[in-house]
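Need tokens for this chain, all 626 residues.
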Amino acid sequence: MNRFLKVLKSSKILLPVFITSLLLGAFLFFYIPYIMEEGLVKSIVRHSKNAVERLQMEREYYTLSVVRDVKKFAPQLSFDYNHEGVNGKLPFPTTTIHDLSRMYSKRSDVKFSLYSEYPFLNRKDRVLTPFQKEALKMVKKNGGLYYKKDFVDGKPVLRVAVADYMVQQACVDCHNSHKLKNWPSDKWKLGDMRGVLEISTPMESAMAEMYSSRNRVLFTSLAIMLLLFVYYAYLLMRRESELNSEKEELSEDLKDLSAHFDRYVIASKTDLNGRIIYASDRFCKISGYKAEELIGKTHNIVRHPDTPKELYKKMWERISNDKTWAGELKNRKKNGGYYWVKAVVMPLYNHKGEKVGYTSIRQDITDKKKIEELNRDLEKRVEEEVKKNREKDKQLLHQSRLAQMGEMISMIAHQWRQPLSAISSCSLAINVKAKLGKLDKESAVELSEKISEYSQHLSSTIDDFRDFFKPNRGKEETTYESLVKSALSIVEVSLKNRSVDVRLDLQCDALLTTYPNELKQVILNLIKNAEDAVVERKIPEPYIEIKSYSEDNKAVLEVRDNAGGVPDNIIDKIFDPYFSTKLEKNGTGLGLYMSKMIVEEHCNGKLEVENGPEGAIFKITLELDG
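Here are the structure tokens for all 626 residues:
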């Protein structure tokens, strides 16, 4: 028991629970009788109202049945308040209420009474008690009902007063015409309150039973509460013991955490004037100062000249307004070196919520800053290298154009051979006919028109080649069909001479916003490579298929052949610069490299290669607008 009391006194959990239990018991001790008494009062009031209603119903029956029949069938009988023992007289309806009230009061402990502010003359000497006066007043105020606990002969009773209204016209007529009335003849009307019926019910025995029930309920509840308290006290004592052990462990952990925090976290605290009142070991180590050299100083002691004053000004403005500041700072070491920190500075408050200073937690980001500096230097070097590579790309593009120009000159030769032969034949025919004197006007006109036609064809061919090599200064709208047909117009003679069948399946008619001439060079290069492949491999029925289609908001152009495809050991290298499968035939190895660079860097598209069932498939993919 002593141990229990000792634990109870020292426990932060059990003592509040014990006190709460006592308060709850005291509360129940007084609250249970209160609610039981309230229920008892309500029950008595309900029964009292029912008793009044029965009395009123008896009076109503007497008035409507007995009085009416007497007046009709026995008019010699009269009604009087003084009816007892006198032949030929019956009681008034109200007198019956008085008589019944006396009778009920004699036969039980419940007392009935009827009284009014306006008695007949035969009751004019009656004096109302203080409660009766109060009841008449309060019944009017409370809507016809008033009850109150009172003491009669030293014993508790509940006095219930219920309004008695004029509900029958016969009652109104009687009260307005009776010879014993003490008021004007027209005073009463239906619905007026005539007086009150009071029922006084003893409460002593009911209260005794109530307190007895209260004690049984209370003692049972207290016994249960005591058992529960003992049980939970045991559990709480055991849990409290565990919590105390855990608290000790947490205290040790907190000490270790505090030690680790001091050792590894750059932290400090200042007063409201910014003077350092705490500096962690890590702060001392990284700055090179001892704690006693920092205490009492401001952070200006580690401020680096490279850090602008405006930064500190903004920081102080923010924390002075009770806000947190976060940012990066370059600090100076004691030896003149520097270090970078990512700092969070915030106001410091005491347990009352009063601001007492500022605290700062910082993270060493010196290595990060050095890496950023290296990255900036690296980016600069990369930019320089990219610039050099772009110059190289321009040279490669120039070489590629020169190589293409060589091929173009060869194509021009093929394109011009037939028209020149035709012009030569026409010229020879004019010469021969002129020498023989057979050059008539019609022949001269016909032959000259042919020469003009062939000349225009040659001029058109020159324009095509010139436009082909003219660089685009800006993007233009075009279609795959226009680009393909323009490229084919340059190589169609060569393809016919080599018996290469060209199959077109151009289903994509979407407008492309791109560089048409550069893209034509790529398409021409792919067609020429396919032509060379089918010729070199001596394919029996060579063909080149060019198809276009739309897919996932992209425009796709494919150039296929039936030359057997690209060998697997070199398919990943064919877009590399200077890589060629035609070195023995003066291949430069720049065509596909420049084609990929044009499609992917200039036109923001994609150039890919794969092997199909019969040969290589080169695919150009461009994004569609919108």
